[in-house]
Amino acid sequence: MSNKLRTASNKGEYKNLEYEPIGPVDQEEPTHEQQLPIIYIITPTYKRAAQIADMTRLAQTLQLVPSIHWIVVEDSENLTQPISNLLKRTRIPFVHLCSTKPKNKTKPTSGRGVANRMKAIEWLRNSSINDGVLYFADDDNSYDVRIFEEMRWTKKVSVWPVGLASKYSISSPIVQDGKVIGFHDGFKRSRLFAVDMAGFAVSLSLLKKHKNPSMPYRLGYLEDGFLKSLHVKMGDLEPKANNCTEVLVWHTKTLSKKMPSWENVKKENSFTQSNLKKLYYKILD
After folding, report:
1. Which has the closest alpha carbon to 197: 273, 235, 141?
2. Which residues are bridge partners to 157 per DSSP?
3. pTM (2 decimals)?
4. Are the beta carbons of 153 and 221 closer than 8 angstroms?
5. Which of 22, 52, 262, 271 is the most buried (most CB within 10 A)?
6. What is the pLDDT of residues 86-121, one digit of tens each?
């Protein structure tokens, strides 16, 4: 059963929080799924024409993955009903939060989703959860479900290739003798960790070990800055996906479309007596 909470503490205040708790674990005869480390999947999302389509596709992928907890953070002042309804339909354990960019960080060069991801990290750090894996899964990417099993046993930081990323259309760690020695990415510059947001996972034990994890409001440097804030070293990286020889996640983008408009539907003579009024209300809610 879903619960809406309003909680506050000296560790953080959550004026908008909705969640689906994980069910109790059978201590006597735990199932295989209950023995698996939990993957905490952080998804920032924002209102746009393709939002529900993208979130539905991601949700139906995640429904195939056992032992996960989905943390969805909207770029909004308040939780929205369409996202809330979608999360409840999935029956995936979830946390539903919202956060907005600081007013001085709205330029395109500030990058997207920083405040949302950090809100989720704040929630995790303030929780009693100490074990599991953290993964950033954007709502418009495409995922082979095998990638989640690859990351599940991450000790510190696991890494793998991402298709359709950067100007090379591929972003990948360079692996030699089973160790990461560098990165193949179209945007390296001064980045120590030239990885895509979809190309790494972090253990919660590492996240909680460091008091001030952060992510810079700087386009292209979000991933690098976050890993540096955790004091990650090159030797900490664990190559996955068959020593980074397989692509199991793609940095796809849904075609940008305009939101439906009331002006268009009002052109229909009897729209108030038909299904269209209710349909548009649901879409534009």
Report:
1. 141
2. 202, 237
3. 0.86
4. no
5. 52
6. 999 999 999 999 999 998 998 889 989 999 999 999
